[in-house]
Structures are given as structure tokens and as C-alpha cells.
Hints:
Layout: E1 2-5, E2 8-11, E3 21-28, E4 31-37, E5 44-50, E6 55-58, E7 62-66, E8 70-79, E9 90-96, E10 99-104, E11 107-108, H1 114-117, E12 125-129, E13 134-138, E14 142-145, E15 155-160, E16 164-172, E17 179-181, E18 184-188, E19 196-197, H2 198-201, H3 204-207, E20 210-214, E21 219-223, E22 226-229, E23 233-234, E24 240-244, E25 248-250, E26 285-290, E27 301-306, E28 309-315, E29 321-326, E30 345-350, E31 353-355
Amino acid sequence: SFSNENGFGYSVDNIHPATPELTSAEHEDMDVSLNWQYELEEDFAYHRITSLNSTDSTISNEHSFTLNEHDEHWVNSVDYNGNYSDNTESIMSISLHAGANLKSFNVLPEDNSITNVMASIEGNATGVIGEGVAANYMEGSGWMGSLSAIDPNSGYWIMVSEDDVLLLMGEPTSRELAYTLHEGANLISYPFRYATVLEEAIPDDAQTSITGIIGEGVAANNMNGNWMGSLDELEGSYGYWFIVEEAIEITFNGCDEQECASLSRQSQNLSTVPEGFDYRQSTTQAFYFIEDIENIEIGDWILAYNGDKVIGARQWQGSIIDVPAMGSDGSDYTEGYIDVGSVPSFKILRGDELIN
């Protein structure tokens, strides 16, 4: 714009640059590359790439990174005057291990059909299981079953034959979603980008109705208003079973700003187990909360067994802890794991010594 008053003039450039058009994302193992199209403008300075934990800039139309668990990226073009374009669509990258992965989606495309959402892992994905709904992938026929579209409020077990990365372009979901939970177990999502501790993420009036929360291989038990166990925070892109005593409605609290990026990641290396005692994640899992064991020492491992098969492990840290027990869910990965109604046995591993 231009102003002329008393013979003096000034100009202001507040015109937003064009938004890059995001076209593709691909990966080789955990190395992901993003590409977009951009028609060069005269005053173009650089592209800014924002992710969950970093900000980068480039003058090219591509960006590469190594994925750790999950990430979300979006791109802006910036001109010489510091004007930013609108954000592109978000690109969601979710790492998946062979077997069962408990996930959810806080970024979704307008076409949220299971065929579109799972397109990047088609052929490797064998099934998706939600609460009371499921779909199987049949070669030549595509996705078949009662689950036809991905719901932003829901969590899902995603089954893949080998390690993979799910890549998805879309818009961030509404953070004001109300979750209507029924009595019993509810498989739901958490909408915010960054990890938030349970006490803050869940409104005070809802906490009294929730008896427990189960994630993938982690759990929390509500003991007289105190949360105990290995699950101490909720984070976007993970799925959670909420166990409630009565029907309630929840609107979560949380944070989407980069300054909330937390060093405490939800996994906390809980998946690491002593060599030779590994087990696979099952879609059916239980947790035993152990308050004390006679003569146990900090650093000892508590192992859960079904017969001679290890079905869970947790390292003793000196206070109440949840020990997972993986059940047989019908997949090859969980053959010989525990059945409903059976009770696992537990052993202590101290160095190389197994103690009944």
C-alpha cells in the first residue's frame, strides 16, 4: 500500500506469499522425504518447515528427516519482508512395528475412508481393529469389514506384517472434540500434539469416574485420586482404552505449541527388555499392579510367564509398577500367550539369575 501526506510517502508490504502446494511424502525405512511444488515469486526468501520438535528452512522444494515414533510437519513460504504464507496441509508420519500398534489420528484428510487413510501402508497392513469394529485387507478386494472410515475420536489397533511408516496428509482435527464415554472400556484418541500429564489432560470432574487407562504396553490405575503405573501422560497419535465406572463426557486439556515439546516421551524405553526375554505386543493385554515384592532390588526385572513363554516384563524402580501380560489374540505373533481366565506366573531376573 502507499500513503502520501504532506509530501512524505512510505510503502508497506503485507501481502502474504503463495502457499506451497504439498504433493508427496515417501520413506526408506525411517528416513522420510517431503516434496512440494512452489511457483517462485520475485520476493521469495525461503521455505520454513515446522515439525513437532524443530524448525528448519530451505530454498529448495524438499525436506528430509529421520523419524522417531511420530511427527507432524507443515510448510510456509516466507518473503524478504518476513511475510508468511498460510500453512500447507499437515503431513503426519507414524512409525509402525511388525504386529499390533495402538494408534489414533489428530490429523485427517477430508476423505477419511480407511482406504485413503491406510493408502501408504496398503499391502503391508493386514487389519485395523477399533472398538467393536474391524476391517481386513484382502489382496485384490481391498478393505473389507464393518470399519469403513477413521473417526478422530477413536483409537485403533493397526496390524502390519513388517516395520513401516504410515504417511498421511490432512488438517489437524478439532481440539474441542467432546468424547462421550460409556460405562466400561472405551477405545479413544487424544487430540493434542504434545504429551500432557494425566492430572492436567483430564478435567478434574472426570478423573473420579475413570478407574484405569491402558495404552500400548503401558497402563495407569487410579488409586484414590492418584495415578499409578507406567502411563503418566497422554499424547496425540496414540490410542488409549479408558475404563470408566459411569457414562461421562470429556473435553481434554492439552497443548499444540512447540514450547510444550516435552523431553519425557510416552514410551520411556518401556519396550526395552533384557536380551532373550522379549515378547510381542498383543491386541489383548492385561496389567498386574505390584506394590512390593520381598527382597526385590531396584534394577531387577519382573517377568510374566504363560508356561515357559515370556508374555511381559517391567523393571523395578522402587515403587508400585504395572507388569504387562500379553494375551493370545489369534495372530501368529501371540501363539502360546495367555488366554482369558488364566493367571500368569511371575519371576525375578537379577543379572543372569531367574528367581521364582
